[in-house]
Structures are given as C-alpha cells and as structure tokens.
C-alpha cells in the first residue's frame, strides 16, 4: 500500500481516489484520513428502513392503484369453444369442400352481482357452444349464456360460485374529457402462468363517438366512449374504469392499422350496457323504444356540414303521427342534443326506453314537440311458435316501417334458437314470404304450413331487402 494511506473502513473509496490520481501520472502528496460515521445498531437500522419503506409505499398508492385494486378481482377471462364451417380444397378435387372444425376464442368480462352475473361483449361469446370463465384467483366456472344483443354488442353470462368479487358500477353520464380512465382485461388469456388481469391507464379522449364497421363486421357502434388507454385483442368485454374504481364502460373495439393498440380504444357506455343487461335478464331480449318515424341525413352545405336530420317516413298511428310530425320535417335537436347525422338519431334511439318522453325541436316551428316512446311493434305484437324453437309475428304496416321491409305481408322471425338456426339456415329478422307455392299472409299460416311440411320444402324469405330461397328437408316419423 502506498505511503500515507490509512487502512480502515473507507479503504474502498480511497482506492478509487488513488486509481484516479495515478491515471493522471501523479500520486497524492499528503496524508488523507477518512472518518466513517459510527455504524447504526441493528434495531435502529430496521426502524429506519421500515420508516422509509412506509413513506415510499404511501406515495406509490395513487388513485389509479386504488381504482385498479378495487375492480381487478372481479375481472374474468372468458374462454369459448365454437364449431364453424370452413371451405377446404382437396388435391383430388378442384372444388372447395365444406368441413367442420372447432375453434377457441378469448375475451374478458366482469362480475356485477354476487349471484354470478357477468357482463361481456356479444362478439366474445357469439356462436359459442361452451363458455368457461376464469377468475383472477384461478377458479374456473362453466358459464350459462343468459342473453345477448348484437346491436349493442352486450352479452350477459351467469356462473354459480361462492365468495364472488363484484365490480362497482358507476355512470357514463357527465364524463370529463381528459379525466383518468383504466382499461382492465386479459389480452393474452392463458399464455401467462397466472389469471390476473392487466391494467392500462389513459384518459377519456372523447364521448359520443360513432364507429362504422368494416366490411367483415356487422355491428355499428353508437355513442361510444373513446380512450387512449391501451385496449388489445382479448381486452374485449373488460371494464373501462374511472379513477374512483367505478365501471363506466365495456371495452369493445379499437381503431388500428397494425392490429395493436394505437391509442384509439372505444367502450360501450355502462348506462346503456346495464339497461340492456336488465332487459336480457328479465325478458331474454331488449325492449327497444319506437317513435314511428325514420330519418335521412341532411344534404349539408358546400363544406359537408349538416344541421338536423330530415324525416323520411312516418308510420300511421305512431307516436310521431299523433304528434303531428310530417315527412320532410327537419329535426334539429332531441332533448337538447344536436342531431347532425343519422347516427346521432340511432344513438338516441338506443338509449330510449318505452314510456320515456322526448322533446324534439323542428326547424320552422316555434314550440318543441313532445313524444312518448312506445315498444317496437314487433315486440308488442302477438307471437306464434313454429317448429318449437322459433317465434313469428305477422307483418303489419307498422312492423314494415319499423324494419324497413320491402314486402307488405309475411311472417317475421323475432326469435330462433341457435340449434334450429344452424340446421335450417333461417335467422332472426328474416321474413317468410312463401312456402313452396303458398304465399304467407300471417304468422299463424306460416306456422301451420311448416307444421304440415314433408319432404323437400322451398322457403322464400326476405333478408336485408333481398329475396333468398332456403331448401329444407322435413322427415316425418311414422305413426
């Protein structure tokens, strides 16, 4: 050791100084003594460490941490199994051959009731044969599909279990642009070794957003909450949460060119989702409201800006007809909300329930017009059961206006079990126009013709404004 250096507890520091000096070609020319403070006793050291840890932990527990901790235990993974038809080509045949294959799907959901009620997306569980729900604590449950609504992309599941955690529901009314929002879900499902959900944070970017679907999608999203909290595939059905740990929406879709999150995530407002869920649990379907008039978009000015929507059709004996609304009227606002496009009007109708009143401002009229919404004619109409798993209603003028149907008569399918739908190829919303050579005038007649059918039967239906034919085969058991 060089002359003038003391050997003590500070030797490591002094050696660093020595090396630094020697690298400059010189050595210290004076004796340097470093005094170390007296070491702390073990009890003092532990107490000091604990105090610093408690201070640090307190600063780390932010509102976001608390909100995530409040909701995350109730967020579940939703795993589904589907059977689908695919077209395959054989080496020996140039024509595609249908083949059945099973596939698995993944999404998220959250428990809203200790009885095991779960909210998720319709597109997560659509066409599922089996649904398994996994809780963050690792428990698995076979789930029952209570009901689903494609228009709002909301589905309700139920599981049976004890000690189930519950997410607290807030409101989507009065959201502030820029306030904190958390997206919670399971974007990677079972790829990780645990079932705990992941949390991403951002802000509320906008409200009331309308999203037009791509060609391969069938859902138009109205009045959505936009957030820049990362939402990825697998997050669908999970909750969007505010800084108080209250659910304000259901994560449903993203706008992405790469397939991953680009800061444009969208959630269904929880007020709408909860109203839909209550209808599904009580009635098995959504009780939608009807005003009895349809609208078209205003042509707009040279810049493409429009003001109001134009009434294109009014159904006789409807709330609109009784209130004096006429074709060509320009509706500017509804309950104070500006109507700039048809999508604004459709979003308004999704959140309206039968029995509620609505105040409309019509261009050129001094006073607002108040309407009281009624149930859709197709919901309030008498139902007839056909083939044991299908319900029909007779097409009337009101139903024709409601559904924008081309033909004046027929039997509208308002409910069909998935098993029967898969076997005969008919679906909800189809209108049975003719069975073999007999035109259908009512739901009762359609049910009777199907009940008596035998052998090969041609069923003509109106679907999305076009007429298609389904060839069915009925085999009757011999008595």
Q: What do these coordinates show?
A:
With 479 residues, this protein is an alpha+beta fold. The protein has helices at residues 11-22, 42-60, 63-71, 122-125, 270-283, 319-322, 342-350, 377-380, 397-403, 418-424, 443-452, and strands at residues 75-90, 93-111, 117-120, 130-134, 140-142, 144-149, 154-158, 180-185, 198-211, 221-227, 239-241, 247-254, 265-269, 289-290, 293-297, 309-314, 330-334, 337-338, 357-362, 369-372, 374-375, 384-386, 390-394, 411-416, 431-435, 438-439, 455-463, 466-474. A hairpin with a 3-residue loop joins β22 and β23 (390-394). The longest helix has 19 residues, at 42-60. It is globular, with a radius of gyration of 32 Å. The chain starts with 10 loop residues before the first helix and ends in a 5-residue tail after the last strand.
User: Mean pLDDT, nearest integer?
Assistant: 83
| CA-CA gap between termini | 112 Å
Strand content: 35-45%
Structurally, how many domains make up the residues? 3
CA-based gyration radius: 32 Å
Q: Which structural class do the helices and strands define?
A: alpha+beta
Helix share of residues?
10-25%
| Global geometry | globular
Features:
21% helix; Thrombin, subunit H; 7-stranded antiparallel sheet; 479 residues; 11 helices; Pdz3 Domain; 36% strand; alpha+beta
Layout of helices and strands, plus pairs?
Layout: H1 11-22, H2 42-60, H3 63-71, E1 75-90, E2 93-111, E3 117-120, H4 122-125, E4 130-134, E5 140-142, E6 144-149, E7 154-158, E8 180-185, E9 198-211, E10 221-227, E11 239-241, E12 247-254, E13 265-269, H5 270-283, E14 289-290, E15 293-297, E16 309-314, H6 319-322, E17 330-334, E18 337-338, H7 342-350, E19 357-362, E20 369-372, E21 374-375, H8 377-380, E22 384-386, E23 390-394, H9 397-403, E24 411-416, H10 418-424, E25 431-435, E26 438-439, H11 443-452, E27 455-463, E28 466-474
Antiparallel strand pairs: 1-2, 1-4, 2-3, 3-7, 4-5, 6-7, 8-9, 8-11, 9-10, 10-13, 11-12, 12-13, 14-21, 15-16, 16-17, 17-18, 17-19, 19-20, 22-23, 23-24, 24-25, 25-26, 25-27, 27-28
């Amino acid at each position: 050791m060089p002359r003038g250096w003391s050997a003590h507890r500070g030797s490591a520091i002094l050696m660093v100084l020595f090396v630094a000096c020697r690298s400059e070609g010189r050595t210290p020319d004076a004796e340097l003594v470093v005094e170390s403070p007296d070491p702390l006793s073990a009890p003092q050291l532990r107490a000091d460490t604990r105090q610093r840890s408690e201070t640090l932990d307190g600063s780390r527990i932010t509102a976001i941490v608390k909100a995530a901790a409040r909701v995350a235990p109730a967020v579940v993974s939703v795993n589904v199994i589907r059977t689908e038809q695919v077209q395959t080509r054989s080496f020996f045949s140039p024509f595609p051959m249908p083949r059945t294959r099973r596939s698995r799907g993944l999404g998220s959901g959250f428990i809203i009731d200790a009885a095991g009620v779960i909210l998720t997306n319709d597109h997560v569980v659509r066409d599922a044969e089996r649904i398994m729900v996994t809780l963050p604590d690792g428990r698995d449950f076979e789930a029952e599909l209570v009901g689903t609504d494609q228009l709002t992309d909301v589905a309700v599941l139920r599981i049976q279990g004890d000690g189930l955690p519950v997410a607290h529901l807030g409101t989507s009314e009065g959201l502030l642009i820029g306030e904190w929002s958390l997206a919670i879900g399971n974007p990677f499902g079972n790829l990780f070794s645990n079932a705990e959900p992941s949390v991403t944070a951002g802000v509320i970017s906008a409200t009331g957003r309308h999203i037009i679907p791509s060609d391969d999608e069938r859902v138009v999203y109205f009045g959505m909450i936009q957030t820049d909290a990362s939402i990825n595939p697998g997050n669908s059905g999970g909750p969007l949460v505010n800084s108080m740990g209250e659910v304000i929406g259901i994560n449903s879709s993203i706008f992405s060119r790469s397939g991953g999150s680009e800061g444009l995530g969208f959630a269904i407002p929880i007020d709408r989702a909860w109203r839909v869920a209550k209808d599904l649990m009580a009635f098995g379907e959504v009780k939608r409201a009807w005003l009895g008039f349809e609208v078209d978009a205003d042509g707009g000015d040279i810049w493409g800006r429009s003001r109001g929507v134009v009434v294109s059709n009014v159904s006789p004996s409807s709330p609109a007809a009784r209130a004096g609304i006429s074709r060509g009227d320009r509706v500017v606002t509804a309950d104070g909300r500006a109507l700039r496009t048809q999508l604004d009007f459709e979003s308004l109708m999704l959140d309206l329930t039968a029995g509620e009143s609505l105040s409309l401002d019509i261009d050129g009229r001094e006073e607002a017009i108040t309407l009281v919404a009624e149930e859709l004619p197709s919901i309030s109409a008498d139902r007839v059961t056909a083939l044991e798993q299908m319900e029909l209603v007779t097409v009337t003028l009101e139903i024709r206006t409601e559904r924008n149907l081309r033909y004046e008569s027929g039997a509208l399918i308002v409910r069909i079990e998935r098993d029967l739908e898969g076997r005969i190829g008919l679906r909800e919303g189809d209108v049975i126009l003719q069975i073999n050579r007999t035109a259908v005038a009512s739901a009762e007649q359609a049910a009777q013709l199907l009940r008596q059918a035998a052998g090969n039967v041609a069923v003509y239906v109106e679907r999305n404004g076009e007429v298609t034919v389904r060839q069915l085969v009925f085999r009757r058991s011999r008595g």
